[in-house]
Design brief:
By secondary structure, this protein is an all-beta fold. It has no helices and eleven strands.
Length: 124
């Protein structure tokens, strides 16, 4: 049974930092690229960051580039999202997901497995 579980969300003041972690089980972790998406109330889900199967390639949305860092540990089946200089507009539910595309994708439709999400709230 495939499971992706995110944790590390919470309430933080603007300018602060959080690190999200996603743990994966039930499939060969290194066979899938990983990504983080987010969805704010009343808005569509949007791509945040992606990382290739072995971590050699990562990429970000323009809104988080320079502030967020995605990484993965294939030995532990973990993917991380380090979020610095948080802004109120970063408030959303954050989801990790696994993609069959080798380098990963910005397109949510190319992700097969999804976690249940973790809430991040940034107070201004």
């Amino acid at each position: 049974q495939v499971q992706l579980v995110e944790f590390g969300g919470g309430l933080v003041q603007a300018g602060g930092s959080l690190r999200l972690t996603c743990t994966a089980s039930g499939y060969t972790f290194s066979s899938f690229a990983m990504g983080w998406f987010r969805q704010a109330p009343g808005k569509e889900r949007e791509f945040v960051a992606g990382i290739s199967r072995y971590g050699g390639t990562n990429y970000y949305s323009d809104s988080v580039k320079g502030r967020f860092t995605i990484s993965r540990d294939n030995a532990k089946n973990l993917v991380y999202l380090q979020m610095n200089s948080l802004k109120a507009e970063d408030t959303a539910v954050y989801y990790c997901a696994a993609s069959w595309v080798v380098q990963g994708s910005r397109n949510a439709e190319e992700y097969r497995y999804w976690g249940q999400g973790t809430q991040v709230t940034v107070s201004s």
